[in-house]
User: Fold these one by one.
Assistant:
Number 1:
Amino acid sequence: MTEQLKLKLNDSKATRWGALVIVAFTMMAAYYVNDVVAPLKTMLETDLAWSSTDFGFFTGGYSFLNVFFLMLIWGGLILDRFGIRFTGKLATILMVGGTALEYYAMTGLAGADATLFGVNEIFGYKTGVFVAFAGYSIFGVGAEVAGITVSKIIAKWFRGKELATAMGVQVALARIGSQAGYAVAIPMARALGLPSPVLLGLILLVGGLIAFFIFSVMDKKLDKQMEEAAIAAGTEGEEEKFSFKDVKNILVNPGFWLIALLCVLFYSCVFPFQKFASELMIIKYGINENVAGTFAGLPALGALILTPVFGGFIDKRGKSASIMILGAAMLIGVHFIYAIPAIDYWLVAIALMIILGIAFSLVPSAMWPAVAKIFPVSQLGTAYALIFFIQNIGLWGIPTLIGKVLDVYCIVGQKADGTNMYDYTIPMCIFTGIACLSLVVAFLLKRADKKYGYQLEEPNIQE
Ligand SMILES: C[C@H](N)C(=O)N[C@@H](CCCCN)C(=O)O
């Protein structure tokens, strides 16, 4: 009884938040790279002869390996088997390697006639497009596995502490990366050449890798302290391990399917939409090319400020299920108005982006902590990996579909520089339809909450 309680590294507020900032930097770099190519769609057409189909194919590449080669599932297994330090470093190395390949495709393999090993077409795509796709696919595996790893890191370092706030802050910091990507892409590409924003991403990711090595030193120390504490408490060997029984338990839970469905539908209307939004801003609303990316990135900027605010509200007041309904309803309004051909005033486009930013803060700040309410901590890593997996199906399929639809149904003319003019009405109707489905699922989730008692409407902090 007289034995003095030893303070662990994460018991110090400054150290645990310091650790969060270090891993959040890696994720910030990942979100920058994820979004930085999107505003360059038109330049890719003029400078590298990409079509909209090429762009959609490339954009869907982020999720290709995650979906068709089950990389998120393997990533989850590796995470549970080999731990956060190994998996985090591996994921970041994949992001660095993938981005380096993407950069090579945009420099060494630029243009329609570029050849690699004597071939200038792979699976019907220009070699440069295919190699960029391959690089972005490898990056996507790293980014998603890093995402679940960082969720697990936060759960480990903040358990019994400011867990929800820490998750909100990490997502908010990631949004800075996204917004930076959207804002700098076009001006930087114009000033320093098309691939330069990708090169900056590569440099940031190398910084992220160094950051992860620094975090690993801290985490190793924490593990040692936890082991000592567990030995002192006689609870050693009781760590959570991956088990196939957990997967079964998760899959039979209706809450899992409703959250996963809402996640894939909602995110399919945000991330893939943003990838095409810069061009929509330029073509339909006549917004200057240099700032179109900044406007397309507005939802990320709004979410940066609002996600922690809404997270705090949910912690104190609850209402998660109702907030997800509200976010989905706002999404319908935004995409529906974007779809109306007669409404083409630039201020409307910006106002809608701001509303999208509010919806993009409401749903994630309610959804991700809701997963933690539905599943016990021992199943959380697996539940996040499975939800990310289902979400990636949309992140692959929707941009691929929109790119194809643009090329087949939406070309309405050509600009002076020879690039296509597109009518975005059909793509926006597709996004509106998906948003309607997300609202239906949000209502079903609220009903399931009442039926199964997930307590989604209850506050997280009990007074
Ligand atoms: C794209 C990625 N799979 C994703 O869904 N990211 C979320 C944040 C998830 C945080 C989970 N603890 C996002 O809104 O960016």
Number 2:
Amino acid sequence: MLSIKDVEAGYGLTPVLQGVSIEVKAGEIVAVLGPNGAGKSTLLRTISGLVAVRAGRIELSGQPVTGMAAHRIARLGVAHVIEGRGILPNLSVKDNLMLGSFLRPRQKFMKSELEGALEQFPWMSSRLSELGGRLSGGQQQMLAIARALLGKPEVLLLDEPSLGLSPLMTDELFETIEALRSSDRAVLIVEQQMHRTLQVASRGYVIQRGKVVLEGSAEVLRTDGRIEKAYMS
Ligand SMILES: Nc1ncnc2c1ncn2[C@@H]1O[C@H](COP(=O)(O)OP(=O)(O)OP(=O)(O)O)[C@@H](O)[C@H]1O
């Protein structure tokens, strides 16, 4: 579904990703872990076209998207829930949700789609007319995810969704993420909460200084002491 091969990317003169290769198949939740500044967010930004690819290639369901503009990549089915939620605080919850369907201009925003989203996030039903900015941090994060899902993405990129959430909201968020597993969607999640993430992911990659230093099944990574080392050094 999503294939990243030998990708290099960075900002100005600073190289960040240095030959990163990652695969995410449909139906998988794959974790990207690693210390602060390793390049995890840069990896997601490179996939969604917000940061330019300097070398290597990115394919989406076999189609090359390397160097494509971000809006085209989004249209091909990549939804990026950026770090820090990114909802529009002055729009209602419903309007925020409706923005999720803008990628499919020829289709009307179906009532049934909204109902589908609300089934997944039942608490939203009673808050549809409230301003997004009045929701708690965790609820805003769920709203950002619900909005991304309304675009019916093939690939969902989640950047540190638990950042700043209370332990209770974090529990709820991880339950939501686990429920995102579906046979036709690939999810790539960047998280600091290593153990929690490896409970919902099937596989993971550990990035250190812009390189993949460890990869494997979540089960193996959970018990691999090298993962802690990668965080320390
Ligand atoms: N917009 C930017 N301009 C210049 N350098 C940047 C920019 N964004 C990130 N960097 C640098 O790129 C490197 C990788 O940052 P990135 O945010 O991808 O790391 P990360 O692994 O996601 O870490 P964190 O968990 O702290 O967000 C860091 O050295 C960071 O300072």
Number 3:
Amino acid sequence: MGGGATIPARDRLIVALDVEDVAAARALVATLGDAVSFYKIGMELAYGGGLALVDELKGGGKKVFVDLKLHDIGQTVERATRQIARLGADFLTVHAFPQTMRAARQGAGGLRLLAVTVMTSYDDSDLAEAGYATSVADLVARRAAQARDIGIDGLILSPQEVAPIRALVGPKMTLVTPGVRPAGAALGDQKRVMTPAEAIAAGADHLVVGRPVTQAQDKRAAAEGIVAEIAGARRA
Ligand SMILES: O=c1ccn([C@@H]2O[C@H](COP(=O)(O)O)[C@@H](O)[C@H]2O)c(=O)[nH]1
């Protein structure tokens, strides 16, 4: 799952299980079948009891990414990370603040950590509104370099930053991009987006896709279409 060209196309797609409870998640996983090998459990499902699914999905041969975006005082982040590591997931997200990342590193053991740089629903004006006197591009780069130096395994960033950040952090960090929309799909609240083929061509390792699959009329066909687009993309 590192930053390499050897990952099968199917394993590059991570479907966000953004549903309200375990029953809905199980139904979605059953519908998608072998079209999807990698799932993300985020806040909505986790707060609906979904962390119990980590073990179940892993037992079914799937890879699992726990997207809780931890951010708290150091002791809390370290101890929460240690608890999540016991679940057996493949990845956990934490916000890319140095204190937070160092604490998570202490608690992670073998759990791989992804640092969330700047949410893909933000643009420069959102950062300005929040009091940051910097552009998205510069803040992503600053946080990516800090994550690399702290020993974080990978980054969450938009596909638009993948090429410059790959050049900055080198080949080892895993670059995971939400903000992915097949051509013509609704953007929803995402602001920094690319298509699956563009994201892969830029050098992304994994693409997180939620609504374009979970809200599609034919969910399995939507997932298969994205995997086919990934397979056909020319990697950087
Ligand atoms: O910067 C970020 C970090 C995480 N996400 C998560 O990815 C999915 C995207 O869902 P879509 O329906 O494809 O927009 C969702 O679970 C987010 O919590 C992100 O979008 N951006």
